[in-house]
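Budget justification aside, the reviewers requested a transparent look at the raw inputs and outputs of the sequence design task funded under Objective 1. We therefore reproduce one unedited record. The lines immediately below are the structure tokens for a 293-residue chain.
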């Protein structure tokens, strides 16, 4: 199976489908990532705040793959914002991942109540990029107005904004802003993981429209959603700890959705996010120390 390759705004390339490890317990991460690498994934998404970067590093080393063969992406947590703290945040993540260079480093959240710290953290990413410590830099959960302010006040246009995108929450306006600035949209909860625990509404995995499309192609709902992301030019980072699902989520390169099917999925947007409102994330309620390596 061949993964679709995407090119960032600085010409760095990455496999469109990556492997997510949010909520993967630290002691199960190396096994899950090893399974993903066996299945063919060559792009892993973790974060300092997932407390499992060391497991990712362990699996990378054990795989025997050359460092250049796997695209490694991680995110700095808000507790490490500010210029010097973010530089040190990179050192902590790189040491846990056991890599010299990180392929893509993101700011995990905008801190709207302390945007000064957010901007300084981004300036640290710019410095790390200039020094060759990271191959690309970006952000996550940046809403349109926050992204606009970042673009105005910093030098390097982020390569990526990793945001919640699945059929129930599509953020088309934000995606259009990304396209205007050549920022790649990377979908978190791409198969609607965040909708599983929703209030009464069936999760995207149980949605009838998606189920019917899946039946027509002899594919699963998860595969249909991943194909929808690929067709619309996004990167997507599905998570699983189950080998069969890890393989299933990578088996998405041999079928195509029709224009009508894509439109039917587009029509499922509710405009309601599953995750927290990004502006509600503050140091007071979400701050937590990120341990040294
Ligand atoms: P996903 O959309 O990837 O869904 C994951 C959930 O679906 C898990 O409960 C998993 O369970 C289950 N699942 C996986 N594959 C299948 C399948 N084929 N059929 C049925 N169920 C399946 O949601 P996530 O929220 O985990 O998002 C993916 C990644 O995005 C994260 O791991 C993380 O890397 C990133 N992320 C980033 C955020 C940010 O703020 N930047 C926020 C949230 C996520 P099981 O493991 O038991 O298979």
């Amino acid at each position: 199976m061949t993964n679709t390759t995407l090119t960032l705004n600085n010409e760095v390339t990455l496999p469109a489908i990556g492997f997510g490890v949010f909520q993967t317990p630290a002691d199960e991460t190396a096994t899950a990532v090893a399974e993903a690498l066996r299945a063919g994934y060559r792009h892993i998404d973790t974060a300092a705040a997932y407390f499992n970067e060391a497991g990712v590093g362990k699996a990378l080393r054990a795989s025997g793959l050359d460092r250049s063969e796997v695209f490694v992406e991680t995110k700095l947590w808000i507790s490490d914002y500010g210029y010097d703290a973010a530089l040190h945040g990179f050192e902590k993540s790189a040491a846990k991942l056991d890599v010299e260079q990180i392929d893509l480093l993101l700011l995990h959240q905008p801190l709207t109540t302390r945007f000064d710290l957010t901007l300084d953290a981004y300036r640290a990413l710019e410095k790390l990029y200039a020094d060759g410590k990271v191959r690309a830099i970006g952000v996550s959960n940046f809403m349109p107005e926050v992204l606009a302010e970042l673009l105005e006040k910093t030098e390097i246009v982020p390569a990526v904004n990793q945001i919640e995108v699945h059929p129930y929450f599509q953020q088309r306006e934000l995606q259009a802003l990304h396209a205007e600035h050549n920022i790649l949209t990377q979908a978190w909860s791409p198969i609607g993981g965040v909708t599983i625990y929703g209030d009464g509404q069936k999760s995207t995995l149980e949605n009838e429209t998606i189920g019917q499309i899946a039946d027509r192609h002899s594919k699963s709902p998860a595969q249909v959603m991943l194909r929808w992301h690929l067709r619309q030019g996004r990167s997507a980072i599905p998570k699983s700890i189950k080998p069969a699902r890890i393989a299933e989520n990578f088996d998405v390169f041999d079928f195509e959705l029709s224009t009508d099917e894509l439109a039917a999925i587009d029509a499922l947007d509710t405009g309601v996010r599953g995750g927290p409102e990004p502006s509600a994330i503050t140091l007071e309620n979400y701050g937590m120390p990120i341990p040294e390596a």
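Residues 20-22, 45, 108, 140-141, 162, 188-194, 196, 205, 220, 222, 237-242, 245, 248-249, 275 surround NDP (CB under 6 Å). The chain has one domain: 13-286. Computational costs for records of this kind are itemized in the attached budget.
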